[in-house]
């Protein structure tokens, strides 16, 4: 691909979507005029599947983006299969992901290398996590919610309500 980026994908499981995820999506909107959020099926995530169904997670991202005042329109779509195939299907030129720590970097480097082999024109762009979200992950949010803790600083009200059910 040559020239400026016109379309990027922000992939993730979003189980549930956190304020950290929304920060990465917001920053992706500053990188390209068209942003598609790919909510991965991740049926075998960590060997136990996801807490929320794919449809629920797609809806949660849409609601959370609206709730947080996402000014830029984004498209939120379910994704099954390979990320490179999804990017080809939607016409995206790059993938944008957030990095929290060195462990994220190692994992993402391996993923970027594989994606580059399968789709040489697809760029991988990484943004460092904002300091206030560096410790936030979906698994931490789920654990706090399971133990009855307050997750209101980590997720939007609609997501917190779903976690409380």
Automatic annotation (TrEMBL):
EC number: 2.7.7.3
Biological or metabolic pathway of the protein: Cofactor biosynthesis; coenzyme A biosynthesis; CoA from (R)-pantothenate: step 4/5
Gene3D superfamilies reported for this sequence: HUPs
Pfam hit, one: CTP_transf_like
Transmembrane annotation, as ranges: none
Compartment annotation: Cytoplasm
Superkingdom per UniProt: Bacteria
Record: residues binding ATP: 13-14, 21, 98-100, 108, 133-139
Molecular function terms from GO: pantetheine-phosphate adenylyltransferase activity
Domain Cytidyltransferase-like: 10-143
InterPro entries in UniProt: Cyt_trans-like (IPR004821), PPAT (IPR001980), Rossmann-like_a/b/a_fold (IPR014729)
Site entry (Transition state stabilizer), positions: 21
Residues annotated as signal peptide: none
Keywords from the UniProt entry: ATP-binding, Coenzyme A biosynthesis, Cytoplasm, Magnesium, Nucleotide-binding, Nucleotidyltransferase, Transferase
PANTHER family registered for this protein in UniProt: PHOSPHOPANTETHEINE ADENYLYLTRANSFERASE
Quaternary structure, from the entry: Homohexamer.
Main function: Reversibly transfers an adenylyl group from ATP to 4'-phosphopantetheine, yielding dephospho-CoA (dPCoA) and pyrophosphate.
This protein's name: Phosphopantetheine adenylyltransferase
Organism: Kribbibacterium absianum
Gene: coaD
